[in-house]
Amino acid sequence: MTQASVRTQSTSNSPLGGSPYPSLRSMTGQGRGEASGNAGAVVTEIRSVNNRGLKVILRTSDSVSELEPKIETLIRQHLHRGSVTVQVRLTSPPGADLPRVNCDAVRSYAEQLAEVADSLAMGDAVTSTNIDLAHLMQLPGVLESPSPDGQDTQERQARAQAKWELVESSVELALERFKKMRSDEAIAMAESIEQDLQLIETRCEQVAKLSPFVVQRYRERLRDRIEKAFAENNLQPAQPVDLIREVQLFADRADISEELTRLKSHLAMMRGVLVGDSSEESASTQERGEAVGRKLDFIIQELNRETNTIGSKAGDAEIAEHVVEMKCAIERMRELVQNLE
């Protein structure tokens, strides 16, 4: 059996070695792998773009088309999301794929043509010396495959196995480089997401500090309006208990402490997914090879929901400014998360 030898070595033993975000990979990237051996030379190129699920598009040369199911299985073992285009080209050794001429068949055709000419009394119109070989080459059975049916079964299996090992080496090397590029891109994306997480945390702290003053300012505004209205209409001032009741109702409606708590919890959860926490649940998820992009996208939706609720309940212009900045950060994160596997 022929063993394939890989021409180009990877620059890293592990595509994710040393990454601060080992569970993250971008859905865009490319990789190229080459391998050569007695069966020929194989070049594999992998490219991918965003996609909700995993879509594998295979483009192979005719000589390896029968290996497409194996190639796709190998690709799906490593990737989980994205539209992935895989090109595999095999260049066979010189003369390996040239068809062979069946001399017996050519001779039989020539003799039969000569016999037909004799039976039709065509004389020397058709002889073995003036038969056009080019025409004979087009007749069935004259050209044979380089692997005729008569070839030993064990030999055919050995040739097929050598070809697959060559293709497998090329595809695995392309996958390694492809994953390395996607990991590097994911690190840059995660660092940008982390900056926005810090911005949201800072804004949350500011909102938490402003929140108690929202009720106080409302009470002062409400008292001033009531006193002015009663004074203009020569009415007795409102009882303090009525003012307290109205302020308490507003305080209940404008209380955002629960939303701030959930928002901070979602931020912590998102960080855990980004860095790939070592919890038992996370480890089980990584063993199953599940993509984290969908989970991050769900957390983004929850962040957006809590932020909208804070803005609508607080009813304060200063808090609204912080909410706007938080929503801008969430939108930036959403665009990046949608490109993560």
From TrEMBL:
Residues 1-39 are annotated as: Disordered. Pfam families: YicC-like_C, YicC-like_N. Keywords: Endonuclease, Hydrolase, Nuclease. Residues 24-190 form the Endoribonuclease YicC-like N-terminal domain. The keyword Hydrolase applies. Residues 1-16 have a biased composition (Polar residues). Residues 208-341 form the Endoribonuclease YicC-like C-terminal domain. Its cofactor is a divalent metal cation. It comes from the Bacteria. Transmembrane segments: none annotated. InterPro entries: YicC-like_C (IPR013551), YicC-like_N (IPR013527), YicC/YloC-like (IPR005229). Belongs to the YicC/YloC family. This is YicC family protein. It comes from Rhodopirellula halodulae.
